[in-house]
Amino acid sequence: MVKIAPSILSADFARFGEEIRAIDEAGCDYVHVDVMDGHFVPNMTFGAPIIEKLRPHTKKPFDVHLMIDPAQPYLEEYAKAGADIITVHAEADKHLDRSLQVIRSLGKKAGVSLNPATPESVLEYVMDKVDLILVMSVNPGFGGQSFIPSALDKIKRIRKMIGDRPIELEVDGGVNVDTIADVVAAGADVVVAGSAVFKGDDYAKTISDLRAAVKS
Ligand code: DX5
Ligand code: ZN
Prior knowledge:
Elements: E1 3-6, H1 16-25, E2 31-36, H2 48-54, E3 62-67, H3 75-81, E4 85-89, H4 96-105, E5 109-114, E6 132-136, H5 151-162, E7 168-172, H6 180-186, E8 190-193, H7 195-198, H8 203-215
Parallel strand pairs: 1-8, 2-3, 3-4, 4-5, 5-6, 6-7, 7-8
Bound molecules: D-xylitol-5-phosphate and zinc ion.
């Protein structure tokens, strides 16, 4: 069954703890945490001190998506703040291989994310160092953007590259009840949903509608 990772980028930041508890009770699998620096992406969110404060509100894994450049100097900080999965962008640090090794050495799952225009060939020589691949299906920076259709072919190609390795394939951006079935059919194991989950009041219903849309 596909894992659902609501992105708290679209949560009410003034009621952050409550929002995390609500998506936990609504049946999310991961909590997707978008960290933005206003440099790698044209938007800023929050950093490790806030993640540390959010940590006690749920036992669900924190899937931390670092949209920061550089990321490597901060990996330890995010590990200590309570991240379970730490994902860096292939376009950000000069030494992707080293960043992935550092994340694993901190005892965390190592993820690599690709922007829509980045070819999947960058993954070729790090496949043995990643636990999760995050395909961006929008240009990172904002919630509520439309799904970029070319991501579907990329998801299929990466699914083939993964083969039987224990690597999760996650897709982020523009996933909603209309797009989720194609994303999962293309090979995604985990989908991020920000605006789709947080725009309504009944998070449990939205999460079950997403799961139902995959089956139909
Ligand atoms: C975008 C973030 C996403 C974002 C997705 O830069 O990485 O996680 O919150 O939002 P939606 O689901 O609204 O496209
Ligand atoms: Zn994200």
